[in-house]
Structure formats: C-alpha cells, structure tokens
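Researcher: Going back to the complex we discussed earlier. I've cleaned up the inputs and rechecked each line, so this should be the final set. Can you rerun the prediction on the complete assembly and write out the structure?
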Amino acid sequence: MLLFILPFPALTADEPGADDVIYYTDSGHAGFMSRIPLHTFTGESEHLTGMIDFEENAVDFYLDLNTLKTGIGRRDRDMYRTLNIEQHPYAEFTGTLETDFDLNSDSRQSATAAGEFTVHGVTREISIEGYLQRQENGIRLEAEWVLNIEDYDIDPPSLLVIQVNEEQEIKIEAMLESQPRDEVIGSNASN
Amino acid sequence: MNRNPVMRLSAATQVINGEGIQAPEQFVTQEIRARLKYKNHQHMKVIILAVMVLLMVYGAADAQLPRERVETDDPVDNVFRATTNIGISTVRNLSAHTLNSTVLHTFGIIHGGDGRRGIDSFFGLDDGANTRIGLAYGITDKLSVNIGRMTFNKIVDFGGKYNVFRQTTSNSMPIELAVKTSVGINTTPGTGFDFSERLTYFGSVMIARKFDGFSLQLTPMMAHFSRTAEVNPEELYGLGFLVNYELNDRFAISGEYLPVIGDRNVATHDAVAVALNIDTGGHVFQLFFTSSQWHNEPFIMANNRDRFWKGDFRFGFNIHRVFGTGR
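Model: Rerun complete. Updated structure for the full complex:
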C-alpha cells in the first residue's frame, strides 16, 4: 500500500521545493566533426535544448537540425537534404541517467545516460558518456560520442567524389540552469 | 427471501452501489458482508492501479520536453557564391575559423591580338597566365584577413574585410554592407623604387542586397598609387557593379562592371566580366570571360587596356576552397 501512496505527495505539494526543479537549457552547443581524406569540417549549433530531471531520473535533449551550420551554405543545404529535415526536423535523445550525480559536490563527475537517440526518423538505443559539474549558475554538461550515420539509414554524402566517413564525432556542451518543473514543462506543454 | 447466495450478493451490491433496489437488511448475512468487503477491496485495487497507470503515463509524458522549432533570423545565404565575384570582392565573408584558399587565373586575349589568330595562341592559353594565389582567414563571422601574391609586378597584397551589416532572412536588415582595405606591394626586383614607392593603398565599401535568386552589389572604391607615370593620377576612383543570378543550388551566373570615375590612366578602359559559378559544397569554381588580365580592384582600374564589348576578352578561372579549422 505504501507503494501506491508514494507518488501522491509530489502531485499534491503546494510549495515548490527541490523536487520540483529540473535543469534546463535552450542554448546549448551541439556540433559534429566530419572527416574525408585530407579534409575535416564541422557543423555547429547553439540551439541545443534539453533538460535533466534528477528527481524523475529523466534526460531529454533535442536539436532543431535547421540550426546546424557548417559555414558553407551549399554544404548546409546538402546536409539538410541528406538528413531529410523537412520530415525529421530534430535529432533527439530521451533516456535516463545510469549513474548517480551528487548535487552537493562541485567536482566534475562522470555520467552515463542510456536511452533512445533519434535522427532521420530512425531510433536506436544508445549509451552516452560524459561529465556533469555543478557550477554557480547551474550544471555544466559535456558529452561526446561517435554516431555511425549508416545506423540511422543516412547515406554518407560526398564532397566531389570522396565519400564522407560514416562515423561522425558528436559533441554537446550546455549550461543547464535550475528551473521550476512547471514553468518549463508545464508552460511548454500548453503551447 | 432469496436463498440463492449469488442473487443475494447481487441484490446487496446493488444496494451498496445505490442502484435503487431496496433489499432488506436481514438479507445481508455475515458471509455476504465478507464477500462484499473482499469485492470492494478488489475494486479499490483496480482503481488505484488505474490511477497508477495514469500517473505513469502522465509522468512519462512529462519526461519529454515538447518539441519546438527554432525561429532564426539568419543572414541571407549566398548573396554571392564566393568572396570574389570575378575580380572584385563581394560582401561575402568567411565564417569564423575557416580558411579560404583562392587561385585566380587570367590568360591572353581569346582572339589572339597583335595580328595573330586565336588558334595561334590557343585562344590565349599560350600567352601565360596572371595568377594570384591567396589565403584568407575568418577571425570572426564578420572579420577576415587575407594575403595574396600575383604574377604581374609580383604584387603581394594583404588586407581585411569587415561586414558591418548582414542582410537577414526576416528582412530586419535589408542590405549587406561590408568594408575592405588592402595594401599592395610591388616586389619586382631591379626597379630602383623605394619601398614606399612600391605601395598601393585601397579601400572600398560594398553594399548589396539579394532579391530571391538575384543579387546586386554596388562598390564605391578608391585606390592610391604611391608612384605613377606623370600622366596618370595618383588616385583612382571607381564604382563597381556586381550581379549574381542563381540558376540552382549548384550553378549561378555573375557579372561585374567597373567604371573608373573621374581622372583615369591613359589608354585604360572600364573592365567588364561575366562568369559561371559552380558550387560543389567545398569548392567554388568560377569560369569567366573578362577584359582585364589583372586581379584586385586597384590594378584592374589602373591597368585594363582591353574593351570587352569590342571582343577583347580573355578566359580565366578562379578556384575557391574553404577549410574548416574547427574551434
């Protein structure tokens, strides 16, 4: 019976407390590095949006792929076409933290998140390793992983006749600021 | 009195559920009360489980942010395909931390000239090229610096370009405005010139707008030559007209016209050029016909002695290659 009762206090609490807080950003950095022989280029965006909810153990991030820029317009358009962003505008990750995070510590802590990563309309289970660090104005997140675009049914594009390597190095960095859960999720949900 | 326990249970349940069937209290035996209590307990479990499931669904929905597209007010893309249209700089600038290499070539007059047939010089290709090799680097998205060296007069030039305004997709800024300055150094040995006499200074303002697939740029400019022939002015002023029309994602045609305003060098003419731009994503190739064999605006104004509309034009090509250097 205790099991049944436990969820109710969170619903009925009148005063926002630590349990009602999530860590959120809509201006995180996301980038990829793509390699072909003798050449490397990067794509960058400053519109990574996401949150970590330690109370609910939820991790959710997404990127509007239209904000990803390589510095060359034509290459950007080729990339958008390759990713079919008209139909699949987001790259997104939803999962849970697999490691504990000590909110009372200022040290840089290793973190692993596991969940579903979706891009190009294809979803795969992945595990991402990175770091979390509590700072004065929130929690800093850094993570890197290698994404094999063929796993997501993305045909490696070509520059001239040389095909881009199917393995793309992904990097994200964000400063997640403490926000009342209702303001972020509640207000957004009503949009 | 109904002796059937099932019927009595049903009747009692209806009483308890308020369904209006009034069963006498004496029908509700101890056994029935126990069974009703058990049944109600089961009902409560089902209700609580249903609430739990709803909570879990609600919680799961909460665990994901609603997806929202980003409304961007980006700079307009591809006002021109490259940082140089043909011979004149465009408002286009490099992104931060990118390196642009350029190789510019112009050959001899296609019709041969000097009494020769075109085929005698293989339509100008045998006459030797004036080649400028250059490197430019984007310090920020608005500021770049560059250095180059061309064959004629062994001129080494360096300078910078700064975008004051960028035309935006929302039209919150309707034009592009950039400024460029450069210094050229004539490094030809054995001329007897002092270093200061070898210098040429240049400045221009580039104002452009892209209308759908068509771009127009006006470029007032001024060049100062430290040493000139007595009959030629030290300052030259010009007004560059640049156009670009996008055929599709890969191809564009462009043109430029550079009239010299006011005093000009003896026997020079306004330069004209037309080009086909091929954009491969990493490279931009420009294949063109131009009256001037010189590169860079001050030297085009000072030295173009050919008249495009009289058939005095030559073939040339530019190659632009951008390298990302990362952050």
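Model: Worth noting: The first strand of chain A starts at residue 21 and ends at 36.
Researcher: Good, that matches what I expected from the previous run.
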